[in-house]
Amino acid sequence: MNKMPRIVVDMDGVLADTYAKFIDRYEASFGRRPTHEELLGRKVYDLEGAADIRNAMHEKGFFRDIAVIPGAVEVMRELYDKYEVYIVSTASEFKHSYRDKWEWLEEHFPFINFQRIVFCGDKHIVHGDYMIDDKVGNLAGFNGTGLLFDALDNHYDEEYHRVHDWAEVRADFQSEREQARAMEA
Amino acid sequence: MNKMPRIVVDMDGVLADTYAKFIDRYEASFGRRPTHEELLGRKVYDLEGAADIRNAMHEKGFFRDIAVIPGAVEVMRELYDKYEVYIVSTASEFKHSYRDKWEWLEEHFPFINFQRIVFCGDKHIVHGDYMIDDKVGNLAGFNGTGLLFDALDNHYDEEYHRVHDWAEVRADFQSEREQARAMEA
């Protein structure tokens, strides 16, 4: 049997709905929610006058109570048995984010062994077969196949295969396994 | 000019004298320091009756006040300009260790950009040209050249080029650069 392929999975925007929390912060500051149109191709904190919202990531607790992206737990649990799944998340800029993210994973993804958690700055140092990430810059430096997880801010990026939700991720890896089996047969 | 080679540098036992702190804990529990002989090929917490000492790594603050290994700051500063230096440290098992290690690096190695800090569990996921580590298991899974940083507990390991201190690391990379220049000429 072949070695299990390695999937590198991002947290913010892929497992965790971090941008929904930024939208709440925007609303608290500006008294309205940004429109869908405004967010196409942009982060919340790239909107006019909203740059300070990015600093929320330095707050203790910011990353602790974020909502899970629908389907992430179920599909990750399936993938975890069939692939070498690693969580690779950018954390180094925000010293409180480590513990928050660690506890968040422990709460929502208890089946993930701590050995498979990587908190880094630049993701170029990690290698694998597949990377699921909402940031083109991370996929661009990756040695394997990149899957761009859909987000409003990456709406105009066309260089990578886009997955719109976790059901699509499941389907893609199901057909990947079928192809692999067909090639072995 | 070629791309800068990447050096992956471990923290505990390489930059930070973590095992000295375990020895202090041993002395506090057993009323004596372990002998040099006892520690050859063994961690402090592998000594008889001392397994609990390993749990100190779960304590908040344990990794914050560790002494710097002599020469590490000076040589790392030199290497940092000539190589793509990454700190890659095992932290995932100990949720408080992240912030302690982050603040420790900020205090003693302020020239290291946070983008170059990786806290992981299993180091097999990181790639590079050189790895400086005191654990054979980490070097064994590495794609590049491993340098085994001398420690009492790795005393009997002979599979890797051993560097006894940071002066030797400096000398090794100086001759590496001279060879690279000679090959380019």
Write a structural description:
The structure is a homodimer of 185-residue chains. The first copy, chain A, is an alpha/beta fold and 185 residues long. Chain A is 35% helix and 15% strand. Chain A has six helices and six strands, in the order βαααβαββαββα. Chain A has helices at residues 18-30, 36-39, 72-82, 97-108, 136-140, 166-184; strands at residues 6-9, 84-90, 117-120, 130-133, 145-149, 161-163. In chain A, strands 3-2-1-4-5-6 form a six-stranded parallel beta sheet. In chain A, β2 (84-90), α4 and β3 (117-120) form a beta-alpha-beta unit. In chain A, α3 packs parallel to α6. Chain A is globular. The two termini of chain A are 12 Å apart. The model of chain A has no long low-confidence stretch (mean pLDDT 95). The A-B interface holds A 6, 8, 86, 88, 91-93, 95-96, 98-99, 102-103, 113-122, 125-128, 143 and B 6, 8, 86, 88, 91-93, 95-96, 98-99, 102-103, 113-122, 125-128, 143.
